Amino acid sequence: MTPAARVQSAIELLDKVIDATRAKGAPADRILADWFRGNRFAGSKDRRAIRDLVYEAIRVCGPVPESGRAAMLALAAQDDALRALFDGSRYGPAPMVEGEPVAETGIAPKWLVERLATSGIAGAEAEALQGRAPLDLRVNTLKADRATLRLPLVGEALPTAQGLRLPFGTQIESWDEYRNGLVEVQDCGSQLACEAVAASAGETVIDLCAGAGGKTLALAAAMGNAGTLVAADTDRGRLSRLAPRAERAGALIAETALLDPGRELEALASWRGKADVVLIDAPCSGTGTWRRNPEARWRLDRNYLERFARIQARLLEIAGELVRPDGRLVYVVCSLLDAEGAHQIEGFLATHPGWRADSLHLPLGTPRGTGLRLTPFHDGTDGFFIARLQKP
Q1: What domain range includes position 226?
Q2: Is 188 considered catalytic here?
Q3: Neighbours of 350 (CB within 10 A)
């Protein structure tokens, strides 16, 4: 493909991403994967170039663009070489026309920028959300140790017990160490969230929002497969991916529980008041993950945020029922909005006498309310809010 043809393909893909965003449809990575499968003429270099163009255009746009061309024109306004490819050549984009729509650049839609600012995310903190995330790994101590593991590429040691950082785009899927479960992909902030759980051998631990099990596997390693680990979620598809991942990692999961939304405690009745610790990795806006999922900014609206807040509050109530007296509750969101983080914990503590917030001593993060907040700018991680509570 010519460079101009790559640009035009990226424009057409951006149109699909924009349409899916408005319809709350498939995410950008799935749209690209489907397009690449159906267009075999695009070689590996073409695919990489097209993917980069699509994501660079998404990152530069604040509100949802009018069209893929408008998004690409906004990117071209910052790149003379890209602008020159709007030359009308065969399979390339038509020449620019004076006065045609150009997407508005920025961090996010205006209302969301304001919400972030009221939560202390503005200026350089907000701009860092437009960058690219590195590739972080966690060495799986059920099979290896960071001190002795030799990988095809030397990684930078992270301030976590077993973390390594590699450059963006490192293709670890081909590594034997990855295929054999010696390492797992996990952001440094996510690793720190698991360390805040402080799970240990012999404990009963419930991962209440396990998803596909990234944090569940980290908890199994921390426990040394000695204890009782329960993984629960309402998403059957995501939860079904845990078993093969656990087998590869050599992790023992005592039980997986598929929950019925609104009736979660029915499926977990046998664990009521028995858990030493419950981890809530709560569904949220994902504002802390924009470096990885930049189009997520376009999918949020005020109603979504209110819905997430209600779910988060309910999950705190459920977890509180599952924790034994003097047990721990760890609340985590990959959000930088106080409404989903510090304010949720403040609300819970205000209505649950005797509960108290533990002091967290993690190597990264800054205090926010009764917890800690990690940000891409300050800590080089995804954005997280983490709090640990003690039941009376």
Answers
A1: 188-390
A2: no
A3: 9
